[in-house]
Every structure is written in C-alpha cells, then in structure tokens.
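User: Teach me something about this protein's shape.
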Amino acid sequence: MERVSDKKTPALQYRFDGPEDAPVLILGPSLGTTWHMWDRQIPELARQWRVFRFDLPGHGGAPAHPAGSVAELADRLLATLDAVGVQRFGYAGCSLGGAIGAELALRHPQRVASLALIAASPRFGTADEFRQRGVIVRSNGLDPIARTSPERWFTSGFAAAQPAITDWAVQMVRTTDPGCYIAACEALAAFDIRAELGAIGVPTLVLVGSEDQVTGPAQARTLVAGIPDARLAVVPGASHLAPVEQPAAVTDLLVRHFSSAWLPAYETGQHAIPAAPVKPVLAPPPPPPPVAPVAEISPAAHQPDAAVRPDPHDTGLKVRREVLGDAHVDQALATADDFSGDFQEFITRYAWGEIWGRPGLDRRMRSGVTLTALVAGGHLDELAFHTRAALRNGLTADEIKEILLQAAVYCGVPAANSAFKVAQQVIRADHPAGLNGSSGRRMEPMKLTKKFHSCVLLEKDGQRLVIDPGGFGEQDAAVGADAILVTHEHPDHFDEERLRAGMEARPGAQIWTLKSVAEQISAAFPGRVHTVGHGDTFTAAGFDIQVHGELHAVIHPDIPRITNVGYLVAGDDAGAVFHPGDALTVPDQPVETLMLPVQAPWSKISEVIDYVREVKPRRAYDIHDALLTDLARPIYDRQIGGLGGTEHLRLTPGDATQV
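Assistant: First, the predicted structure itself:
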C-alpha cells in the first residue's frame, strides 16, 4: 500500500507492507535511490513488522519539494508518520537514509525504539565534495552522476554480472528531480554529528559493505566507537548499496538486530489505512544476486574497548609534538624513568590524545584557555613552554598580552604580573619582533627559491622548507630540507624517491602532508611523517603554517576528486606565502605572495585570472608551469598581469627572491 501524505508539511511519498497490527519498521533510502532499493528485504521483514518505506523528495516520482537539511527531512518524515498514526518505530536507513535515522535518534529519541545505520557516517566526506556534485548537476544535469553511480554503489564484479541492476540504478538517478538532488547534496554537506554520537541512546547496528569506497569500514568504526550501544557488522563482497548487492546477508542481519534489540511490546499508535493500488516500479525488480556470504554482528558486551575505540596514545604523541615541539617532548620522554614513565604515558594518552585531540576547539582557542588556567593556578613552570606552544599554534604576542590582561581581572594582578614576566622572556627569546608592537611574528625576510614545476624552497633563520618535490622536478629537490610539505598524491607533486632522499640526507627532517601520502611513506620514517587537514595549524622548521583547502580541482566530472591541501606560510606579514597545490583555494587570511598554478589540465586562464582577483595577493609567482611552453608564456604574462589586478612575476628554476 502506498500513499503521499497530505499534511501542510511538504509531502513524503510512502508505502506500507506487512501485518497492520505489527510493530512499525521504517526503511530509509540512499541519495539517488527510491524505496525499491529495499525490495529484496520486504518478503522476510514483512513477516514480523509493518514495514514503512518512503521516497526522498523528488525521487521516484515523489513531489519535488527540496529539503536543504537532514533535520528538515527528519521533520517531514515525522509529520508523515504523525499523519498515519505511527508514534514509535524501529528505523533502518542507508547512507542519507541513515543520516535521517541518526537525526531522529538524537532529536526525537522517544520515537525511535531501535536503529540500524547502513553505509552511514557521522560526516559524509567534505562539504566541498557534495557542493561540487551540486555544481555538476546544475551545469550538466544528472546524467554524469547517473552514469557513475554503479561505480560508487556496487563492486565491479557485481556490476558486470548484473547488468539489469546496473541499468536500474542508473535509471533511478536519471529520473530524480535535479533541484531535489542538489538540495540533498547540500543537506549532506552540512551534516556533521561527530561530537554528538554519545547522545544516541538506542541499540544500534552499524552495517557496512567490506568494499564500500564511499562510507566504508573506517566510518562505520567511528560510529561504533561513538555510539554507546552499537555493534558492527561488515558484509563481505558488498559496496555502498549493500541491501541491493547482498540482500540475503543484509536481511539476516536486520532480522537478528531488530528481533534482539527491539524494546518490549508497546502500543504503536498506528491505525490501519485502506489498501490502495500499488505504484508501478521504475524498472523491473532486480534479479536475485548470487548467494550472499554470511556476515556476523560483532559482539558488544565482551568486545575490548581497544577493538572499537582507537588507542589515543599515538594521536596524543603527534598532537603533543606539534603543539610543544619535538625538542621539548623528546626531553620529557628521555628523562622519564620507572617513577615518572607512567605519568608521561598518562598525559600523552589523555591530556594530548583525548582532550587536545578533540575537534570541538581549534588549537588557538585551546592555547588561550590553557594560558588562563595556568595563570589562575600559579603554574609558572609550565607557563613558559605553553607560551611557546601558543605562538606555535598561531597566537600572536599581542593576543597573548590580551589574554594575560584578561587574566589579571579574573585571576588577580599578582598572578598576572608573574605571568607577564614569564611570557615576556619567552617572546623576547623566540619572537623578539613581537615585543615591538608587531603582530608577534618574526620580521626577518624569507627567501623563496623557485624549483621546477610546483616545487618551491623557503629559507629563514637557517631553516629550509620545501613544498611539493614532485616527479617533474630536480632529483635533489628535497635534499637539505628541514621540513617538507606535500599538497596531494599526484606524481608531479609527490615523488617517494625524492622524499626518501631528503629524509635520509637529514635525519631530523620531517614531512607534513595529507593522509593518502602519509600512508605511503610513514612506515619508512616512523614518527617523522605528520598528517594534516583543512584548518590545522602547526610549526615546521620554525615556519608557522596554516592548512587551507580539502579537494583537488575538478579535472573532469567523470574523474573522482582526490584530497588536496594548500599551505599558508607566515613570514613578515600574516599569510605571507600561500601554495594551493592543485586547487584554486581562497584562504580566509591575507596573502602577500601567491604561488599561482598558472597552467594545468584542470584550469583555464580565465579561472586563473579570477583566482588572482579573489585572493588579492600583493604579488603572484608562477608555479605548475612545466606544461607551459616558452611560446605561450608571454600570452599568460600579458593576460594575467593585465587582468589579475596584482603584480604577476615569474622565476626560472633556481632563481630566488626575498618575500
């Protein structure tokens, strides 16, 4: 039986199956699918439950009333359930449908009896990723998304063996309303419940396909680690749409979960609804897939904490080094003995791993809070190295001064007086320019040397920082570097042989990069490779650095985007040098010198000109220019220099300048 709700809230299209007096079990669909993705589960689930399926707005012929947030989708579902008299229910949802279920469990816990989250995540990728998908739909319609959906939803073997299901999946996406699809992308872009997982209080099954490349086992384990009463089930041989690809295994897991985790019998408040003609499906029901493998639900009660919640020690040691500096941490660990060693383990694991590693505050804010607490407690012995940490985390001397003035009001003048003496000594020693009314950053000039293609060398105070020593450049590009930054994994920016040469030439050298690169080289250099992402701040070889950006520029809609980060390196002014990697990221800080990707397969000159205009640097130097011939350089120089609104400059490999 299927209907469209008729309340004033925009309608949801829904369907009931199963006994009218049974408890209600809701099945929520994934983005781009219809309720028919659950067809293979219905015969078995409808034996015990009154199964309620619904379509997302504009999906499967449902009314096209876009919803711009997961919360709004959850509210529309509740309004529909209220209209048919359903008060309490079990809920299983896939991907976006899982996000709706988590939202219901958080905001309306009295309505949800038990929960299953399939191919779900507390945060779906990055906001840029989903907004870019919306841009593709606005520009080209849903066809590019439809054609690539089978690659995201199914394993390659299944897609090849089941062409009818593949065609059915493509047709589902093509018949979706574009405006509603874009709105759903915006909803996923804004969805982030990582800090709220502990508030989900119902028994939860987290189910994921072992081959899911969209929201895979790592995201599933994050859910299990954060939800107090959660169990994990990994379905072998399944990708993102596990209910379609491995229906028998998924059905068995859902039956076992909702049979064992369902709350005692209760009054559903549901009223019978007269039968209505069944709506025709968009495509024939999928043929039965091969025999599904068996998947097991991991036990919860006897599972050690370490199996679901990662040990925070490694994270803590990384954060501790980034905030306090290697020299300080090495000294603290080297002096630890049988008496103090346990304490060093304790603060590394809990202070730095559990608290400093939390996402709720950035490191600048945590440094400010720490300084105030140390002043209040009179802990002047620790105030010195936490003042250094505050400077490393991006606080200026002026900002530290304001924090101590504020502390004088609430912690007492004598305490603040002592704190000023300690902080003054640290700033005078480490950041002398900060005592002369400046922003607190050192005022020595920075030397910039252009290497081949996108590689640059920055030198200051005898320290050398190299960015993107890739395969197009000099073999020794990273040799002699104290710190190396890599923006992304493409071989013209990341070359393992060149990185190894630099790390082996200088045993103290360290690398800062994104996860995909770190995973390839960290085993060879334990403790010397650090993973960073958008919003992070750190100090490398004496350079204060901020990370901006999350995704590589679009090469073609059919080519999946990879992660890319840009590095803002502080010099004699805020945001002195910015290297964006392969993206046109605009930092939220002033940029004095922009390293400009002037020519690439993913750009055109009008975009480069507009990028310069938006960043508004004082000067722009060309990088990413290995594919630009000498014949074309005058054209680029004239057009970018004439239209970009800034000083456009070019250095040949090996040339240097002061910035």
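Now, about its shape. The longest strand covers residues 112-118. The chain has 23 helices and 22 strands. If you'd like, I can walk through any region in more detail.
User: That's plenty for now, thanks!
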